[in-house]
Write a structure and sequence with these properties.
With about 210 residues, the protein is mainly β. It has 2 helices and 19 strands. It has a 4-stranded antiparallel beta sheet, with no helix packed on it. It is elongated. The protein starts with a strand and ends in a 16-residue tail after the last strand. The model has no long low-confidence stretch (mean pLDDT about 90).
Length: about 210
């Protein structure tokens, strides 16, 4: 499949390896199934796949999990999925339907995706760092940008957006130390101390260092 991103999604009885980002089908995602005896993470049935939206050229960049949903991050959009099952010829058949969350903001930096206190935080090269608020809503209110204070001016050669655009996507990393969200790029590290200021205080009041 030559997929570039992979995750494990589900629970005890419905569990699968999910992957996406293959160059041949950029917006397709695939999941593993049962070999007839047990769940097999190496077996991908030929019909266990779906498309994340109509734009076949927009790559799936990464996955996350929030509110029991599988969140699918594409370069300029976000969607969600969850298991649905049916019985065909006496065997359980798993499906992962796709539902859009936001069709104008996405994530083109897989290394930026982290779950921070039950909300997914992610970044892109054209807007900065965002929080996914609620997977049940759709549209612009589903995400909130939080990096205004560090985005900087790209033309000045300073700030987060400038740094993100100077390196390859694989060179951008992030981590959560249970008090701060860190994102690093181009030799600089930026950290959001969410113990001091949560995102709901307003973007201009989010504490970045």
């Amino acid at each position: 499949l030559r997929c570039t991103c992979v995750t494990v999604y589900g629970g005890d009885k419905q569990l699968a390896v999910v992957c996406g980002g293959t160059p041949g089908q950029p917006n397709a995602y695939f999941w593993s199934g049962s070999n007839g005896i047990r769940l097999d993470p190496t077996y991908f049935p030929f019909d266990y796949y779906n498309y994340a939206g109509a734009n076949s050229e927009e790559y799936i960049v990464g996955f996350g999990k929030q509110q029991s949903m599988l969140v699918v991050f594409k370069e300029k959009s976000i969607g969600k999925s969850y298991f649905q099952s049916s019985v065909i010829s006496g065997m359980e058949h798993l499906n992962l339907p796709y539902t859009p969350i936001n069709e104008s903001i996405g994530c083109d930096l897989e290394g930026s995706i982290r779950l921070i206190q039950n909300n997914l935080v992610f970044a892109n090269t054209y807007g900065g760092v965002y929080v996914l608020l609620d997977t049940s809503s759709f549209g612009e209110n589903s995400v909130r940008r939080i990096s205004r204070n560090i985005n900087g001016d790209r033309s000045s050669g300073k700030g987060l957006l400038y740094d993100l655009q100077q390196v390859s996507a694989t060179a951008v990393t992030s981590f959560d130390d249970q008090q701060r969200y860190w994102i690093t790029a181009n030799g600089h590290a930026y950290l959001w101390d969410y113990a001091i200021s949560w995102y709901n205080r307003g973007e201009e009041k989010v504490s970045w260092f």
